[in-house]
Amino acid sequence: MTGAEVRVARERRGWQQEALAERLGVSQGYVSLLESGRRSVPKRLAVKLVSLLSLSPSNLPVPTPKSLPSQQAARALGRLGYPGFAYLHSGAKVNPIEVLLGTLLADDVDARVVEGLPWLLVRYPDVDWDRLVADAKQHDAQNRLGFLVALASRLAAANGDAATAELLERREQALQRSLLQHDDAFSRTSLTQAERRWLVANRSPEAKRWNLLATLNVDRLLHAS
What we know:
The protein is mainly alpha-helical. The protein has helices at 3-13, 17-24, 28-36, 43-52, 70-79, 96-104, 111-123, 129-138, 142-158, 162-176, 193-202, 205-209, 218-224. It has two domains: 3-55, 434 Repressor (Amino-terminal Domain), CATH 1.10.260.40; 70-224, no CATH class. Helix content is 60%, strand content 0%. α2 crosses α3 (28-36).
């Protein structure tokens, strides 16, 4: 989150610096320093600013990446607006990157959660992409990410969002250079050998391109969301 983004969002609200300062519990001078870039936005204020100024949750702090259980991922998707988990909408939002990285690092991810991840990439194209890619590569999860981006690009196109579809297609092309040759899956530990053989023979075109053992395709995503 930059100071310029804070200023634009504040002005959109029609607030003076004093009004925002009062709501944040800081001085007007401190808000001025934030907006001018002379002070970075601390994590404690970032959460308040996202709520007060209706900023994208992509501005929220991102903790150290760790595996995210499917139940927690489902709740986070619901809070971020995913229709498939709309009944889990209550509670504090998290940065979409936390959900994406948490599921990329998990050994076994519930199929319904996986269906929500391409939607997340379409809904929040403003995520810190460089951070997401770097962390995914560090954990050899770029094939999973590439698969999700490929589906997200097709989902955006199917929904008539040409700009986001093009952006995601460029991101997929850039990721293609780091494709790992071994097969991966969102159920790394629970698949039997028979299931693996079946998935190899029946996986979707996007899964085949990214060496993923998955049948998920854009038609299923459209139905899920």
